[in-house]
Amino acid sequence: MPAKKGSDEIVTLLSNEKINEKYFKLVFSSPGLSRHAAPGQFLHMKISLGTDPFLRRPFSYYRVAGPKIEVLYEVLGDGTRILCRKKKGETVKVMGPLGKGFAGNIGKKKRLLVAGGVGIPPLVFLAEKYSAEYLLIGTKSKAEVLPKKELRKVKAGILHSTEDGSWGSRGRVTALLEKVIMEEDPRGLFIQTCGPKPMMRAVMALAHKYGIEGEASWEESMACGVGACLSCMVKTREGLMRACADGPVFKFEDLEP
Ligand SMILES: Cc1cc2nc3c(=O)[nH]c(=O)nc-3n(C[C@H](O)[C@H](O)[C@H](O)COP(=O)(O)OP(=O)(O)OC[C@H]3O[C@@H](n4cnc5c(N)ncnc54)[C@H](O)[C@@H]3O)c2cc1C
Ligand code: FES
Question: Which structural domain, as residue segments, surrounds residue 37?
Answer without folding.
Answer: 7-98
